Give the backbone structure.
Amino acid sequence: MPETLPREMRAAAGQPDRRESVTGMIRNSFRTSYFQYLLLILIITFGLMNYETVYALFVEQKYGYDAAQISVLITVGAVIGIIVQVWLLDRFIKRLGEMKLIRISLVMTAAALLLMLVTVNLGYLLLVSGLFFAFNAFLRPTLSTIIANAAGDRQGYAAGLSTTYTSIGSILGPVIAGQLFDWHIHMPYILGAGILASALFLTVHTSNNQQKRTAAHD
């Protein structure tokens, strides 16, 4: 249905103009208070796409597994992700806090990508894959919650930006991962681990900015 409010009233109510382009949204996102979290969304999506894009080819070439074994690995990882989000996410947030959980998850997902480079057996690969999917499942919902809280009455606009940055990561990840895999099968996971680990510095910067804003408000 067409928008009933005029453009001026939508701006006053904190609602974005529907005619705003994607490039305009990205440009305006630089000025939001939650821009660092949007970058984290981009980084996490990029790391996940690096993992998933070449996973079947990686396992086939490194372990020699067939399609049935690879499908079991992917299914187990997906089930672990669902279990984490449904039953464990809220408990971990209450116990550790959102930012601490994000930092731990970044470290563990980066470590899981590097552990993928070691060839052992199917049980080991199941464990490492489950580790990656579990801690990756912690990241996105936690970041989405932080962004929604920071956005205030513009949560719809923030959700749109989050989707945009997710889409960018989903586009860049497969393209870069495929090219790196052709160069060397380990390179997509090495790059993904490095990017996820480097995101820790972004969380430290974000935490410092939050403390400064809190001190100024007090």
In short: The two ends are 44 Å apart (CA to CA). The mean pLDDT is 83.
